[in-house]
Write a structure and sequence with these properties.
This protein has 458 residues and is of the alpha+beta class. It contains eleven helices and 15 strands.
Length: 458
């Protein structure tokens, strides 16, 4: 079945909520973010998750309650009860916060016994919590207090020793301007990095467990944005595929995912192929979406369960590289044979459609696609009389196009550029499209029609 990122999160859970495994590593606003690896490590151990719309919002602030829940889950603490903080009673994170108090990570006196759990947490507060996670409060800390930050004097004296300890363990760092911003609000990305560094120190997670989603493939085709209806259909279908997640073992179906092409669903008339001719039809342009996706899937190393070529050659791809679809009869289907989910992302710019496949980096491969035309099938010219035309007038209504017999191939290379294997994908037949020339009647026929001969008596 098709999943979108928003459907993976069933409730309005914030950080600390367990995420469904199939979508756990699929937070699109983390792609290429500097903290992506650390965030995905915490996702893997169910310490953090995203929002109901499938995003993580790495630059958003994180509250004291949210961060407490992250630590609670990351350190695998048990729920606890504590009444030292007078304002957490009935709060959704009450037991998690109380557990951190019991373990000494939160000192009620630092907050005058009012934790304000929904207040954004500061960087110095985080530093103190993670420092106490590795060194209990009753054990003396030996760390130089002369920190290298220009704003070190701004650190709250209650937090200075813990900030120095966290810095000495490389849990925290400064900004490029040599400040720490101790009382500045921490972002969700920053907090994730600090927690991961602490967990590395404790031996809870290893560096090799980074779960970066890597680009497995990317493929683009060009289209004419001045063809308004066709471009509309293409973009509508393409964006329906955006954020598609394919679980391990799941078979993707283009028709099931995109759905029927109907007026009610926003599709318009544009040219389609019917009976070996280009004619107006609902949803024209959709086959360019399926063909672009087909090539991206092949470059990601996927195997096809179903694919059909057009009956005529199409202009946006060479013969052998297309994939036509017709709702209810012809589909594009491929299977995720990997042990991890696949993520499909759509990119549209004026005149350019791109599909990217993302997955676990161990499935990255160097793949190239190629095709060979075995035979060109020349088109013929058909001349058709059209009495509506003037005598001697000719109109070319179909320019004509050659047909082809073509084969397509996929080649796999190793890191040194040596061929690992080469496989034939398809052998396709494309009918020629005959040139149609319409001509008016000869002058004599017109004259006889206008001046008929007299009829004899009968």
């Amino acid at each position: 079945m098709r999943h979108t990122l928003g459907l993976l999160l069933l409730f309005m859970f914030l950080l600390g909520t367990t995420l469904a495994p199939a979508g756990a590593a699929l937070l699109p606003d983390l792609f290429t973010h500097w903290a992506e690896g650390e965030v995905r490590q915490l996702v893997k151990i169910d310490a953090i998750t995203g929002y109901p719309d499938g995003t993580f919002r790495p630059q958003a602030p994180i509250t004291r309650a949210e961060f407490s829940t992250v630590l609670f889950k990351a350190l695998e603490y048990a729920a606890a009860k504590d009444q030292s903080l007078v304002d957490i009673e009935g709060h959704w994170a009450q037991n998690q916060i109380a557990s951190l108090v019991v373990h000494g990570l939160i000192s009620p006196r630092d907050y005058d016994y009012h934790f304000n759990p929904d207040q954004p947490i500061t960087r110095e507060e985080i530093a103190k919590m993670i420092a106490r996670a590795v060194t209990p409060a009753d054990i003396p800390v030996v760390a130089p207090l002369d920190l290298p930050f220009l704003d070190s004097p701004d650190i709250n004296p209650l937090f200075l020793e813990s900030v120095a300890h966290a810095y000495s363990l490389n849990f925290i760092g400064g900004y490029p301007d040599h400040t720490f911003k101790p009382r500045g609000t921490s972002t969700r990305a920053e907090s994730a990095v600090m927690v991961v560094r602490m967990l590395h120190y404790l031996g809870r997670i290893a560096d090799e467990e980074h779960l970066y989603l890597e680009e497995l493939s990317s493929f683009s085709t060009q289209y004419n944005p001045r063809e308004i209806n066709r471009s509309h259909n293409l973009e509508l279908a393409a964006m329906t595929l955006d954020n598609t997640i394919l679980a391990p073992g799941e078979v993707f179906s283009f028709n099931r995912t995109v759905g029927p092409r109907t007026v009610a669903r926003g599709y318009r008339e544009a040219l389609i192929i019917i009976g070996g001719r280009f004619q107006p039809g609902l949803g024209g342009g959709i086959c360019q979406v399926s063909s672009t996706l087909y090539n991206a899937a092949l470059l990601a190393g996927l195997s096809m369960a179903e694919r059909h070529n057009h009956s005529l050659a199409i202009p946006y791809l060479p013969p052998g590289r297309d994939a036509t679809i017709a709702y209810g009869s012809q589909d594009l289907r491929f299977k995720n044979h990997m042990e991890h989910p696949l993520y499909i992302k759509t990119f549209i710019s004026p005149g350019r459609l791109t599909f990217n496949f993302y997955g676990h980096r161990k499935y990255q491969q160097h793949i190239e696609l190629s095709q060979v035309t075995d035979q060109v099938l020349p088109f013929r010219t058909e001349r058709i009389a059209d009495p509506s035309l003037r005598p001697g007038q000719e109109i070319v209504r179909v320019a004509g196009a050659n047909g082809y017999i073509a084969r397509s191939f996929r080649t796999f290379y190793d890191d040194q550029g040596q061929v690992i294997k080469r496989e034939q994908l398809t052998r396709d037949y494309y009918h020629p499209l005959n040139r149609l020339v319409y001509f008016g009647p000869p002058p004599k026929a017109v004259e006889e029609k206008e001046n008929p001969r007299p009829q004899g008596e009968q």
